[in-house]
Amino acid sequence: MNIEVAGHHLWNLRRAWAGANLCRSRLAQAENSAPVIDAGAFQIKDLRGRAGHDVDYYAWEGVRILKIVDKVIKAGLRGRDEVTRARDALRAEAPLLEEFRNQVTHVEDNRGADDIVYFGDAVRLLPNGGVEYVVDPRYRQHDLLARLVAATEAALLTLASPDNGPLKRYDNSGA
Questions:
Q1: Where are the alpha helices (DSSP H) in 42-167?
Q2: Residue 167 phi, psi (nearest 5)
Q3: What are 117's strand-pairing partners?
Q4: How many angstroms separate the CA atoms of 38 and 15, rounded?
Q5: Distance of alpha carbon 166 from the chain centroid
Q6: H or E element: which one contains 159?
Q7: Region at 145 (left for phi over 0; alpha for psi -120 to 50; beta for the rest)
Q8: CA distance 2 to 29
Q9: Element (H or E) spanning 10, and its range?
Q10: What angle do CA 153, 80, 100 make, to 5 degrees?
Q11: In 60, 96, 141, 164, which residue has its Cα 20 to 30 A from 131's Cα atom?
Q12: Residue 36 is inside which H or E element, if any?
């Protein structure tokens, strides 16, 4: 990988990360403004009927990041071991991320998303009453994606010079 290619990947990495954070922020805003159902002893945010577009786009950006990560690992850049560990941790936590992204973005083969329900995340309701978190931009999956972006950026910066572009470095504030 040469300096120009590293710079291109760095720009795309930051762009995808900014997109993921924008989606996450809009999901948090929707959840914060959702009506509350009073269930007596506790209150529940009513997230039924919310469009899942931001969850879909978050998955799209996450997969864009994973594709850049694969190129960094394949190129053998310094720091690739940390990038590999961060990627493996994310894939262990969100093993269905890429499959979900493919199902919601490829109209010719999207039957696998028929049982997905959106509550500010994408979940699959299981027959036993349990929930399988497919894409959850709110908590651990996002933290792991942030770790992956940081490790990948550090590896790319071994070739590409840092810049002072308009994007925020890392916003892991939860908003």
A1: 53-75, 80-93, 97-105, 140-156
A2: -80, 145
A3: 123
A4: 40
A5: 21
A6: none
A7: alpha
A8: 40
A9: helix 3-32
A10: 75
A11: 60
A12: strand 36-38
123 and 47 Cβ atoms separated by less than 8 Å: no
**Cα-flanking dihedrals φ and ψ of residue 93, to 5°?**
-80, -35
**Cα separation, 42 vs 54, whole angstroms:** 28
Q: What is the pLDDT of residue 91?
A: 97
Answer whether 18's CB lies under 8 Å from 167's CB: yes
pLDDT tens digit sequence for 128-167: 988 888 999 988 999 999 999 999 999 999 886 555 444 4
pLDDT digits 0-9 by tens, 42-83:
888 887 766 678 889 999 999 999 999 999 999 999 899 999
Phi, psi torsion values for 134, nearest 5 degrees: -85, -55
Q: Are 112 and 30 in contact (CB under 8 A)?
A: no
Cβ burial of 32 (10 Å; 0-12, 13-18, 19+) is: exposed
CA 93 and chain centroid, separation:
11
